[in-house]
Specification:
Blueprint: H1 2-71, H2 79-111, E1 115-118, H3 119-133, E2 138-143, H4 145-148, E3 151-154, H5 158-174, E4 180-187, E5 191-198, H6 225-235, E6 239-244, E7 250-257, H7 258-262
Helix pairs in contact: 1-2, 3-5, 5-6
């Protein structure tokens, strides 16, 4: 009788422990889904406002462009000022290009269109666009020769996510007087991994989730860079995580399912980020 009671108590204890663990896991999953829903709702609201702002900004940007192109060749413009005006003209052109890209990205997401490029061409385009945005940046691009010619389908929003991460990395490096950032891309067994490295102070708590939408730790930040990058990773079935790099600074890793980027698979499941097995880098 005592043996039966002990066995029943043991089985009941194991069952209760497993049930409690399952409930905790489900609560964490629901909490994470709730956080994502709130984040996506905020992003949708910002996107709606951004669409109106983009339409309104087109006219003043056109006016600025016209005035700058008149001032640059003017005889009364001294050479140092002329160089500054040329830089301003480049930035105005970049702003106009960003507005056009916003419209193109939105159309591509609605239509489900993806551009196909080699991995090397894509990351070089990202760094080129980043250099236009932040001319002072010293960007180190790391790409293996065997990955450079890998053809990948570029989902809408991926380029903006990487540029946002590079922009955040440069801001972090600037806190310690550096202009160095690094972008690496490599294919693993089942995933494509992008790494963005800065030379700043690093994270006080690397396990902390990205900043809340609209809340930034920078004086002039908008608080949307990391949130948008994480939302892009979630939408593409990947993940985004952060850690402090060896030798100082921080590193952000964006991992995406490789098969989803290479081609469509007829009826076959696409691996998620949980199945990504990136190769270790030295």
């Amino acid at each position: 009788m005592a043996i039966n009671f002990a066995i029943a108590a043991l089985l009941l204890g194991v069952f209760i422990a497993r049930l409690a663990g399952a409930l905790r896991g489900e609560q964490l999953r629901l909490q994470r889904l709730h956080e994502r829903a709130l984040r996506d709702e905020g992003i949708l609201a910002m996107a709606t406002q951004s669409a109106g702002a983009a339409h309104e900004l087109n006219t003043p940007l056109a006016t600025l462009r016209m005035l700058l192109h008149e001032l640059i060749p003017a005889p009364s413009t001294c050479e140092p000022l002329r160089e500054d005006l040329k830089l301003m003209a480049q930035q105005v052109d970049r702003c106009s290009e960003i507005l056009r890209e916003l419209v193109a990205v939105g159309r591509a997401q609605l239509d489900g269109d993806c551009e196909t490029l080699s991995l090397g061409a894509f990351v070089r385009r990202c760094t080129d666009r980043f250099q236009l945005l932040r001319p002072e940046a010293d960007t180190d691009l790391q790409l293996r020769a065997e990955d450079a010619d890998l053809p990948v389908r570029i989902p809408a929003g991926l380029q903006h996510a990487l540029i946002n991460l590079l922009n955040n990395a440069l801001d972090a490096s600037a806190q310690l007087g550096s202009t160095q950032v690094a972008l690496s891309a490599r294919s693993g067994v089942r995933c494509l991994e992008f790494r963005v490295r800065d030379h700043g102070p690093g994270f006080a708590d690397p396990s902390r989730s990205p900043d809340s939408l609209g809340v930034s730790g920078k004086d002039h930040g908008l608080g949307i860079g990391l949130a948008l990058a994480e939302a892009t990773a979630d939408r593409l079935g990947g993940d985004l995580d952060a850690s402090n790099a060896a030798g100082g600074g921080a590193e952000i890793r964006l991992r995406l399912p490789l098969l989803a980027l290479l081609s469509e698979r007829d009826g076959k499941p696409v691996p998620t980020a949980a199945h990504c097995i990136p190769e270790e880098t030295p």
